[in-house]
Amino acid sequence: SLASEGDSVAHSIVTGAGRQLGRTAAAVASRLGLSETQFSIVRAGSLHLAGSSALDAAFLETVAVLAPTGQVVTVRMPPAAGAALLAVERHGLVPPFDALAERFAPKPDA
Fold first, then answer.
1. What's the confidence (pLDDT) of residue 20?
2. Residues 6+ apart with CB under 8 A from 89
3. Predicted local distance difference test score (pLDDT) of residue 103
4. What is the rounded distance in angstroms from the CA atom of residue 27 to the CA atom of residue 50?
5. Which of 54, 47, 62, 49 is nearest to 5 (CA)?
6. Residue 95, helix vs strand vs coil
């Protein structure tokens, strides 16, 4: 990306987006009353999985300051898999959680 190639304008935009995402996550946690306890901040979707070091660093730094009791994890399950799980549950079936957990378990972010 241009941000990783040294374009200062692109870097500013990407880091600003990372900070805003971090502020949003912290605000949600605060609103839910999670600020005084350990909790997970789950990152999911293509933006968080894109591998932008500038976005990731800005997000993690912001969360560390504004929601220090939150542990950031990233879900690596594709959206279609989540939809399939919902469909399985809706039909009263038991999803194979052990196999899914092993394959798609969230990994703590650095």
1. 97
2. 95
3. 65
4. 23
5. 54
6. coil
Predicted pLDDT at 96: 65
pLDDT along the chain (110 residues), means of 10: 78 95 96 91 83 93 96 81 79 69 63
43 and 71 Cβ atoms separated by less than 8 Å: no
∠ CA 29-31-35, nearest 5°, is: 45
User: What pTM was estimated for this model as a whole?
Assistant: 0.73
Runs of H (alpha helix) within the chain:
8-31, 46-49, 53-66, 79-90, 97-104
Length of the chain: 110
Which residues partner with 70 through β-bridges?
39
